Structure formats: C-alpha cells, structure tokens
Amino acid sequence: MNDVDVLVLEYMVSRAGFARHQVEHLRRWWQATAADESLLAFLQRQRLLSSPSSQILHQIANGHLTRGMGFTLLDPQEFIQIRRQLPEVSGDVGTDPRVTMTLFGSDETTPEMPRMPAIPEPPRVGGFLGKYLLTEWLGQGANGNVFRALHPTLQIPVAVKVLTAIGGSDEAARMERLKSEARLLAQLNHPNIVRVYDFEEHPHYPFLVLEHVNGPSLAELIEQCGRIQPDRVIRLTKQLAEGLAAAHQLGVVHRDIKPANVLLTRSGEVKLADLGLAIMRRTPASPNASARGEVGSRSGTALYIAPELVTSAALPDERSDMYSLGATLFHALTGRPPFDGRDIWEVLDNAVKQSPPCPRRFVPDLSTDLADLVKRMLAKDPLGRPYSFQNLLLEPALSGEIPPPRPIGSGLWTKLMERWRGRQQRLQHV
Questions:
Q1: How would you class 268 by CB atoms within 10 Å of its CB: exposed for 0-12, middle for 13-18, buried for 19 or more?
Q2: Distance (Å, whole) CA 332 – CA 337
C-alpha cells in the first residue's frame, strides 16, 4: 500500500464517515481482484472515484499540497456516495460464499431515514399474512424470506416471498426491488421460470405470491447425490437455457443463477427462481427498458459470479449469466464449484486469477463435448463464451437425443424425495 492509498483510507475514515467494516470491505475486494494495482487505481477502474479527486490525492502525496488544503479541495459528497452504496452486511458477507452478496450497491441510493415506529411481529409459520396461511418456511431469497402457504380460495399451495420489515435507510430501495421482481416475473410467462400470481403492498411486510414448486432445489440434490448424472444435467441445462433465452429476449438479466435457485418438480421439470437481483437491459425487444440500477451494481453469489463483474465496472449481461450457468453446471456435474475458498474473498481471488479446471479431472468418463462446453461457458473473456442461450441450445453437447426422465416415484428419485420431505418435516417442527 503506497502513500496515496493511505491518504484515501485516512480521508474515508476522518472526513467521509466510513465505518471500519466498510473500509475492510473495500480493502478485501481490492486485494482479491487486483494483485499489483494501487487502491486508488482500483477505485478509478471501478468508477467509484473521479479523475479530479485522484489528481488532488496525488498532489497531496507528492507534497505539492498540504493535507489540510488538499482535503478541503476534495468533494466530500463523492466519498459519502461511495459509503452509502456499500452493502449494510459487508462486515458479515465474507463468512459463506454460497450466499448472495453485494460487492457494491446501486447508484440510486436512499438518504438516511428517521427512526420508524414499532412494527408488528414478523410473519411466522402457522400465522396469516394477508389472506394466506403460512404453512412452512422454505428458505431465504435475495429480497426476503420464502414460505409455503395455502391459497384460501383455491386451496392450493403457493410460495410467499416476504420482504423483511419495512423501515431503515434502504426501505425504498428494497421495496422497489420486490416490485421490480414482480413486474419481471409477470412478463416472463415461461414454463421454466417460476410464475408470479400476485403482489401485496402490506403496510409492514410486502410480499409476492409465487408458483410453488413441489420438489428439491438443484443445490439440495447435489448435497444428497454428490454429483448429478450427465444425462440429467443436459436435460436441465436445455430447460434452463430455454427459460433464460426467453428472459434475455425481453431484456432481463438474472444475475444470481446458482443451484439454490434451480428448482425441480416431481415430474423432472426445471424452474428458475428468485429474480430479486434481476435487472432490465435495453434490447430491440425492449427499447424502452430502464437501465436503472445497472451502473455500479455488482451483486451475485461469489461461487458463481462472472469475474468481469468483480474486476471491472462491466455491466451484467447475457454472457455474465452464461458464466453463472456454466459454474452451476460444473457444480452439478462434479459435485463441487469450479472455484472454492474459505470466504468470498478467497473464492473471488481464485476465480479472477486461476483458469477453470476441466470437469473431466473430477469425472473422467464425462464426454469431451460436454466438458469443453462447460469450460467455454467459464471463459474469463466474455467473448469466449457461447454468444447467447439460443446458440447454447444448438451446441453438439446438448443437441443429442436424451432418454426421457425417470419418474420421481421410483428408484433413486424416490429415496431422494423421501429424504427431502423428511428434512422439510423436521424443519417444520423445529
């Protein structure tokens, strides 16, 4: 760390109100992605710091300006803007690389909000949220908790995604993300994407009502099986590619494709879930789409996020989703993610600096075509990946005839479903 970098950190703490965990977040992100680059150069490359501010800091470090005068010339709002965009959970995000994390938030920040009055108890299993009876906690998505619930009129199970309690400095941003997810899902009427039924603006706990998928996620299946047979991986890849092709045609970028967001029905169909981080990009099919939230927004899951979103200010697009799908397929085929580590920073460091391993190293009998396809999907250079999900469907590794899926009611699938149901029942009684 050189003198200019020390000045940057000193200014952040003394003049811009950065907390220690926020400075640590920036430092670890910088060290995980830029081995020989100064912190100042890293901030400029990520478009977090302007050239005039950089020049002033260099002048101070070279002795041409005193610290007092130089710090006065710096725009404090520029650094406050950086501070406000850092994720609230940055102090804890390094503990689990499987969890969706934010490297840097949206450019659209929300000012500090006054303390809110007391709010009711959060939704719980056995209680009602609006007219829906919550029957089981299913997990946590990008924007809130997900419950299984009962539709009061149709008497069918649905999934209810509940935003955590309204209030705090990011209230408007979180509410807008949930609304955005509802709007995107409403446009994506595709059999391989979870459908949305309703959106309720509850005064304290807004929620989405979604299609309930009666089966495990791909993450649970990998945990139970170790790795998935190639023919089944090919089948789910084709279905995911079809769903993602429809999404990208409308300008939707998912940004958080991973095994936990791939749901499997009892009949073997695949449903892509959790568009809580999805954004709209302008395309010929959606010329009026808003680019809101794109610039400066680096969110995803460390094990599956594309390296260009970590090392530069590149915008998420179809090829960053292609990388995430490739990392998901690698995990399904081999039983392990392409890059691993003790925390997100080590994972990101490995993903940026190392070449992805060949899947055949872990599964020697895997076909060469399928192994090569996964490696191309994981290419460091986005231009080296398949151009689109439509093109992905034409790949020789995916175009062969695949036997129809075995029904879940027999053989190994029966055992897996029994384990899954048993675990869900145990969780329900905890």
A1: middle
A2: 8
Residue 101 lies in a domain: no
286-295 pLDDT tens trace: 444 444 444 3
Residue 332 lies in a domain: yes
CA distance 338 to 354: 10
Q: What is the per-residue pLDDT across 257-297, written as a single tens digit (0 to 9) for each?
A: 999 999 999 888 999 988 877 787 754 444 444 444 443 45
Percent of the chain with pLDDT over 70: 78
Q: Which is more confident, 330 or 295?
A: 330
Q: Which residues contact 52 (CB under 8 A, 6 or more apart)?
A: none
Range of the domain at 174: 128-211
Q: Which SS3 state, helix, strand or coil, does residue 361 take? A: helix
Residue 416 burial (CB count, 10 A) = 18
Q: What whole-number distance in Å separates Cα of residue 145 and Cα of residue 168?
A: 18
The total number of structural domains that make up the chain: 3
310 & 245 share domain = yes
Catalogue the long-range contacts made by 124-130 (C-beta closer than 8 Å, 24 or more residues apart).
Answer: 125/428, 129/160, 129/162, 129/202, 129/205, 129/207, 130/200, 130/202, 130/207
Phi-psi region of 286 (alpha: psi -120 to 50; beta: other; left: phi over 0): beta
3 is catalytic: no
Candidates 5, 170, 256, 317; catalytic one:
256
